[in-house]
């Protein structure tokens, strides 16, 4: 049987350097994230930037909304570099970006990319002038810009004009406005002297089906790299599913050069979840491999104990913990696959398909857990859940040492992405 590639070739885009990280062209689809600290608090913001970068965010965006925030950007950068976090830093500007970047040259210099929302750069004649001021600063500083159109803050004058013209439902006209706003803004940025290879585009909306149609149109009309993200995706499961549904379709069509999963965190929640979600999405699409994957069955009436669920969770958490040092020491470890299965129905099959798989006994089955290595039965474990977990971890640890060669030089794959 001949297999048809499930992912279409990448939509051809220019390569835009964001600091030391190329985006678009032949570069892998990049992962980025955004802080939710008050940027005027340099210590707290830098701490979160470092955590996001260490979790695998290849670029980190911060809000720059006030003079106090702009004044702290160089300090945030310094703290990140001191901690070894070299992820490019992106400033998110609305309304007063032209003023902040002009009045705080240290801020303009410390950032690697400026995000401009063309719907929020001013009104009337000042709108284009203020947009062009930011582009001219980016040109002079050699920085990249993201022209980030957002459905929630579309240029009102453009919308009025297009509504007047008609030609479709209100939603269709709004979607057309988004693409028009992006492409016209590119022309304006070029007229301000910004080079084509310094411009990234995005057109975010909060509806997956609209996001898909807007980006398809954008990809037809532009060869600038595209930043994908479902804006205001929401909390927890809803945010994850909606973001994956929308971005999964686009990525499978080769559209998208960098992604952000905009999850609303629980109060006090961990901001790094949006980085983990982006990793999982790219890994699920087979676009990039960041971390060993764990296949676990959902469980059913054939397994009434929770042992396999506990083991699957423990293995997943343990891998996350071990990953940074594995990646430093063992080349290719991100391709490791594990299976933790609940009974004999699919257990041996999935376990054989993984690098290492364990099939736990279902209800009424003999209390033995066959473990398969590279498709062959290696051993059979028995015992209480804690002992089982310890034995399985030790097998995985030995497998990693044996299968993945030690790196000859120290590399940090998170900070120097593939
Ligand atoms: S492997 Fe067994 S326990 Fe798991 S879902 Fe399938 S039948 Fe149920």
Quick overview:
By secondary structure, the chain is an alpha/beta fold.
What would your notes on this structure say?
With 418 residues, the chain is of the alpha/beta class. It has 13 helices and 17 strands. Strand 1 and strand 2 (21-23) form a beta hairpin. Helix 5 crosses helix 7 (170-191). The longest helix has 23 residues, at 307-329. It is elongated. The site of iron/sulfur cluster has 13 residues, from loops.
Number of helices: 13
Lateral arrangement of strands in the main beta sheet: 8-7-6-5-4-3-11-9
What is the number of strand segments?
17
Helix content: 40-55%
Rounded to an integer in angstroms, the radius of gyration calculated over CA atoms is 24 Å
Task: Give the termini separation.
Answer: 32 Å
Features of this protein?
418 residues, alpha/beta, 8-stranded parallel sheet, 13 helices, binds iron/sulfur cluster
List the helices and strands and how they pair.
Blueprint: E1 16-18, E2 21-23, E3 30-34, H1 42-54, E4 59-63, H2 67-82, E5 89-93, H3 97-103, H4 105-110, E6 113-116, H5 124-141, E7 144-150, H6 156-165, H7 170-191, E8 199-204, H8 208-221, E9 227-228, E10 234-235, H9 236-252, E11 258-259, E12 263-264, H10 273-284, E13 293-296, H11 307-329, E14 337-341, H12 347-353, E15 356-359, E16 369-373, E17 376-381, H13 385-403
Parallel strand pairs: 3-4, 3-11, 4-5, 5-6, 6-7, 7-8, 9-11, 10-12, 13-14, 14-15
Antiparallel strand pairs: 1-2, 15-16, 16-17
Residues 297-300, 302-303, 341-343, 345-347, 362 line the site of iron/sulfur cluster.
């Amino acid at each position: 049987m001949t297999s048809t590639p499930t992912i279409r070739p990448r939509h051809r885009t220019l390569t835009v350097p964001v600091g030391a990280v190329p985006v678009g062209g032949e570069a892998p689809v990049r992962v980025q994230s955004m802080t939710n600290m008050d940027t005027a608090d340099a210590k707290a913001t830098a701490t979160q930037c470092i955590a996001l970068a260490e979790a695998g965010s290849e670029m980190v965006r911060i809000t720059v909304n006030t003079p106090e925030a702009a004044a702290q950007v160089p300090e945030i950068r310094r703290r990140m570099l001191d901690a070894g976090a070299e992820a490019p830093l992106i400033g998110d500007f609305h309304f007063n970006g032209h003023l902040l970047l002009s009045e705080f040259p240290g801020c303009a210099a410390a950032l690697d990319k400026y995000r401009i929302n063309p719907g929020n750069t001013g009104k009337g004649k000042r709108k284009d002038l203020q947009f062009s001021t930011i582009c001219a600063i980016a040109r002079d500083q050699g920085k990249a810009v993201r022209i980030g159109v957002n459905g929630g803050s579309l240029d009102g004058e453009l919308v009025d004009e297009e509504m007047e013209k008609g030609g479709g439902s209100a939603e269709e006209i709004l979607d057309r406005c988004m693409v028009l706003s992006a492409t016209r803004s590119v022309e304006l940025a070029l007229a301000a002297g910004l080079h084509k290879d310094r411009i990234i585009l995005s057109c975010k909306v909060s509806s997956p089906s609209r996001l898909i149609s807007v980006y398809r149109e954008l990809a037809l009309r532009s060869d600038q790299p595209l930043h994908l993200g479902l804006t205001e995706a929401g909390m927890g499961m809803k945010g994850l599913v909606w973001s994956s549904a929308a971005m999964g379709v686009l990525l499978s069509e080769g559209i998208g050069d960098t992604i952000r999963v905009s999850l609303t965190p629980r109060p006090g929640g961990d901001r790094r979840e949006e980085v983990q979600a982006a990793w999982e999405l790219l890994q699920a699409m087979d676009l990039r491999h960041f971390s060993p994957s764990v296949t676990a069955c959902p469980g059913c009436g054939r397994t009434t104990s929770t042992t396999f669920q506990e083991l699957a969770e423990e293995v997943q958490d343990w891998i996350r913990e071990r990953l940074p040092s594995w990646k430093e020491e063992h080349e290719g470890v991100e391709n490791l696959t594990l299976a933790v299965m609940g009974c004999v129905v699919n257990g041996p099959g999935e376990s054989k398909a993984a690098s290492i798989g364990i099939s736990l006994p279902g209800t009424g089955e003999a209390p033995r857990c066959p473990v398969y290595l590279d498709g062959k039965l290696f051993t059979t474990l028995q015992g209480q859940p804690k002992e089982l977990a310890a034995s399985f971890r030790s097998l995985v640890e030995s497998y990693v040492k044996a299968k993945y060669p030690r790196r000859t030089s120290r590399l940090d794959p998170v900070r120097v992405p593939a």
